[in-house]
Design goal:
Helix content: 25-40%
Strand content: 15-25%
Number of domains: 1
Number of helices: 3
Number of strands: 4
CATH superfamily: HPr-like
Strand order of the largest sheet: 1-4-2-3
Structural class: alpha+beta
Shape: globular
Distance between the termini: 37 Å
CATH architecture: 2-Layer Sandwich
């Protein structure tokens, strides 16, 4: 068992990927999220998906221009949110 900081960290981002969070992007996100012990969620319009699950991310059907929130809680929550947001934002628009 790990210690939790007792706080939640989140970051809002606007999706700039032309095709949204499609299969390849969702796979990259899930792979990166699984590196962290924290519980990590992706939220779109109040609908919550597990960032460590490719299928859960795909069910959110996030399109270009939509806002998502990346939220994490756990021992590495800050690092998880920062790196997932960077991963998504650094992808080329036509990825």
């Amino acid at each position: 068992m790990f210690e939790m900081e007792g706080k939640m960290v989140e970051k809002s981002i606007i999706i700039k990927l032309r095709f949204g969070l499609h299969l390849r992007v969702a796979g990259l996100i899930a792979k990166e999220a699984r590196k962290y012990q924290s519980d990590i969620l992706i939220i779109k319009n109040g609908i919550v998906g597990q960032a460590k699950s490719l299928i859960s991310i795909l069910f959110l059907t996030v399109a270009y221009g939509e806002k998502i929130i990346i939220r994490a809680e756990g021992p590495d929550e800050r690092e998880a949110v920062k790196n997932l947001a960077k991963l998504i934002c650094d992808l080329p628009e036509d990825f």
